[in-house]
Amino acid sequence: MYVGIDVGTSMVKAAAFDGTGRERAVAARPVGLALHGGVVEQDMEKVYAAVVAVLEELTRRVPEPVELAGLTGQGDGVWLVDGEGRPVRPAASWMDGRAHELVGRWLADGTFETVFRRTGSAMFPGCPGPLLAWLDRHEPKALDTAEAALYCKDMVFRRLTGAPATTDVSDASMPFLDPRTRTYDNRVVELLGLTHRRRLLAPVSDPVATAETRGEGLPAGTRIANGPYDLPACALGAGVTAPGDGLLIVGTCLASLVATTELDLSGEPAGLYISTDRPGHWLRAMPAMVGTAALDWVLSTTGVPHAEVDGLLADTPPGAHGVRVLPYFAPSGERAPFVEPRLRAELTGVSLESSKGDLVRATCEGIGYAARHCLDAAGLTGSLAVCGGGTRSAAWMRLLADVLGRPLRVVEGEVGARGAVLAAAERYGIPLDAKAWTEPTAVVEPDPGRAAYYAKGYREHLTRLDQARARARA
After folding, report:
1. What Rg, from alpha-carbon coordinates, does the chain have?
2. Widest pairwise Cα distance in the chain
3. Other Cβ atoms within 10 Å of 130 Cβ, number
4. Which of 45, 220, 327, 413 has the greatest number of CB atoms lying within 10 Å of its CB?
5. Cβ neighbours of residue 287 under 8 Å, at least 6 residues apart?
6. In angstroms, rounded to a whole number, what is the distance separating the alpha carbons of residues 370 and 292?
7. Distance CA 166, CA 158 (A)
8. Positive or negative: CA dihedral 420, 426, 427, 431
9. What is the mean pLDDT of residues 167-172?
10. CA dist., res. 463 & res. 474, Å (int)
11. What pLDDT score was predicted for residue 268?
């Protein structure tokens, strides 16, 4: 049995696979977010307890010996730990918005662009640079106490194994890693005013770190590898490794990734280049802030259960009777394919005649337009795979194929966990058939007529977005 662990933003999952890549079982536990005034935090002890619980459940349900485990999880944020790997304070989530004024200041004075030109990272309020700078100003004692500012999976790896604090090149890519040398750029640390906190940046393990577990969740002595984080892990799990091929992750974060061997740090600073386990190969990433979270908010507000989404999409025509949604609901604004910390969602074209179906369809269309914008900016030229919770809606997948105007290779199941296992197997020299492990479960073709309709709608979306960005800056 091979076990993949995916420590997500709202759900912790562990999946068991056999040697052919067949998913045997999945265990999951929800984890909460504390939101107040733009601050978004997580209780690290509860996150770790959820990891242990899902692993215990999984190993009870699939009793075969665990050959190998791979770990992945949400990226960005700041997970401060002491010398024992215990939390110093709650983790600041990647969704956190408290550092938006710092990002705004760096946008205005050129620091933001300089960092992008050096590292390929377009900072946003919830990434480690701004968050550490904010904590240095407002909670310096927490930084004084901490041994390391980790990423989510690194904290879990530290606790499961007792190994020293480390991270990997994928997590370190935002915002301090030089993608050419695969080491921290100390000039960037200096530009963000964090030279005196440089010790908090965990050593980068290249290739990913390995260790044996201590007996919590998994049997003691189980081999485990740490990384990459969830976006590149999903790319591995979906078979997206050839230059030009892309992946759209329809999850809490709407992430668009395109594999590339070219490092282009020109153009509008946005997204990031994620370093992979292969030097000279990157993922051009445009991780938009809100994906399924936008639809969840609309469903909660309108009282529509998830089970009714497919029916509402089927009963509502393209264009949603004139209702339009700019789906930028995150409290920290947007980070891809542009950075606007003050951008907020907009709902237009609503009247007393608008239905719940109109609101749901307009939201799904808006998310689709945002995805197209990100994929265009990331340089998609090859095939496109899709994974994430949104793939459970067949109607939404058909809508996305139409909005994007291209076939979708739908990869279902625990794709991030699958990629974590493949990365671990590569690290340990275990020969798994990656092609067999990453076969799509379906291919969804676009309807030519609807695709043409949405091509016009996409141009209109970009115009509305330009106007909204101008208002956000006013």
Report:
1. 21
2. 63
3. 30
4. 327
5. 231, 253, 254, 255, 256, 271, 272, 335, 336
6. 12
7. 8
8. positive
9. 97
10. 17
11. 85
Can you give the pTM of this predicted structure?
0.91
CB atoms near residue 414 (< 10 Å): 23
For the chain, give every domain's residue range: 2-232, 288-410+444-473
> In whole numbers, what is the pLDDT of the chain averaged over residues?
95
Task: Collect all residues with Cβ–Cβ distance below 8 Å to 274 and sequence separation of at least 6.
Answer: 170, 173, 228, 231, 232, 257, 282, 283, 285
At position 202, the amino acid (one-letter code) is A
3-state class of 400 per DSSP? helix
Q: Parallel, antiparallel, or unpaired: how do β-strands 442-444 and 408-410 relate?
A: antiparallel
Residue 36, Cα to own-chain centre: how many angstroms?
A: 22
The per-residue pLDDT for range 59-78, each reduced to its tens digit, is: 999 989 999 999 999 999 99
341 has pLDDT over 90: no
The whole-angstrom separation of Cα 238 and Cα 236 is: 5
Interior angle at CA 49, CA 71 and CA 388, nearest 5: 45
Contact 369, 325 (CB under 8 A): no
Per-residue tokens: 74: 């949400």
Sign for the pseudo-dihedral over CA of 92, 93, 98, 99: positive
How far apart CA 156 and CA 8 sit, in angstroms, is 12
Task: Give first-to-last CA distance, the chain, whole Å.
Answer: 56
Do 288-410+444-473 and 2-232 fall under one CATH topology? yes
Query: What is the residue type of 350?
Result: V
Q: How far, in whole angstroms, is CA 87 from its chain's centroid?
A: 22
Report d(CA 366, CA 371) in Å as an integer: 9
Residue type, 303: G
pLDDT at 334 > cutoff 80: yes
Q: How many residues does the chain have?
A: 474
The whole-angstrom separation of Cα 136 and Cα 138 is 6
Closest CA to 458 of 402, 409, 408, 407: 402
Rounded mean pLDDT, 399-415: 97
What would the CATH number be for the domain defined by 2-232?
3.30.420.40
